[in-house]
């Protein structure tokens, strides 16, 4: 709800709860970092043990739903993709390397790696 009010109605609605909104945003970002860095499933927010752990750490924090968490991760992905594109557009040359392999389950993988030198 806080995300909705902030996004749709501006920060003026939350002037009395600015610290709570900032804290919620900070914890949401930390949750997104954990999901992305540790390859956690979006369903972690529905796990009873995780809910208990978070409630013990900060009883005022309300975990986002799976869909809200997914949207936050997608938003982070889009931001990082935009940053990466802007960096690559500024370089003079990029060296690409491709590697293909097959897993033990016969799944095929292709990895493309790009290297560049910047300032």
Describe the protein in words.
With 119 residues, this protein is an alpha+beta fold. The protein is built from four helices and two strands; from the N terminus they run H-H-H-H-E-E. A two-stranded antiparallel ribbon has the order 1-2. Helix 2 (18-37) packs across helix 4 (66-90). The longest helix is centred in the middle third of the chain and has 25 residues, at 66-90. It is flat and about 50 Å long. The mean pLDDT is 90.
Task: Please describe the topology of this protein.
Layout: H1 2-9, H2 18-37, H3 48-57, H4 66-90, E1 95-102, E2 108-115
Antiparallel strand pairs: 1-2
Helix pairs in contact: 2-4
- Beta strands, count: 2
Give the overall pLDDT as a whole number: 90
Q: Largest sheet, described in full?
A: 2 strands, antiparallel
Structural class: alpha+beta
Shape: flat
Low-confidence stretches: none
Backbone CA Rg: 20 Å
* First-to-last CA distance: 43 Å
Helical element count?
4
Helix content: 40-55%
In what range is the share of β-strand residues? 5-15%
Order of helices and strands: HHHHEE
